Each structure stands twice: as structure tokens, then as C-alpha cells.
Amino acid sequence: MQSHLVGRRAELAHLRHRLDLAADGAGGIVLISGEAGVGKTRLAGELACSATMPVLQGRAEQGRTAPYAPLVD
Fold first, then answer.
1. Measuring CA to CA, which residue among 1, 72, 2, 5 is closest to residue 47?
2. I need a labelling partner for 52 at 20 to 30 A (CA). Which of 16, 23, 24, 68 fits?
3. What is the pLDDT of residue 63?
4. What tens digit of pLDDT does each residue of 1-60 get?
5. Residue 70: which pLDDT band, with cuts at 50, 70 and 90?
6. CA 43, CA 41: separation in Å to the nearest integer?
7. Residues 5 and 12: beta-carbon distance below 8 Å
8. Are 65 and 37 in contact (CB under 8 A)?
């Protein structure tokens, strides 16, 4: 069982808003960045779990120069 997401209400609301816009046909890209351990993966996971449509997730590794590396995952 996963614990509740704490302290990220505004960020999650923004991501859900962007997902709603995408569902309405206004697609785009959202970049979640930050220092290691701040909860980026958890935030993206929470969004994906609550989505009513498929959500694609990728990972970019620092120092990796291939521009489409996150999509390769």
C-alpha cells in the first residue's frame, strides 16, 4: 500500500489540468524536473494512476544526449 502524496497538491492539480487539456485536444508536453529524491517519479505515478486515458511516461538520464531517449523507454 502506498502512502498519501504529501505537499504536492498544487503540482498534481496543475498536471491534472494539463491532462484535461490534452483530453480536449490541446496536446503538449510537460517536463517534471528537480533534484534527486524530491518525488518526481511519485508525482508522475500519481497522475498516471488517476488518469482516465493512457499516459506515456519516459525517463531521461543526465548526460544522455539522444533527444528522443525518454521516448525510447
1. 5
2. 68
3. 65
4. 566 777 888 999 999 999 999 889 998 888 888 888 888 889 988 988 888 888 777 766
5. low
6. 5
7. yes
8. no
Residue type, 46: E
pTM of the model: 0.71
Instruction: Name the grid cell of 16.
Output: 491534472
C-alpha cell at 65: 544526449
Residue linked to cell 483530453: 23
> Nearest-CA neighbor of 32 among 41, 23, 22, 20?
41
* Amino acid found at 52: T
The CA distance from 9 to 23, in Å, is: 21
| Residue 38 grid coordinates | 524530491
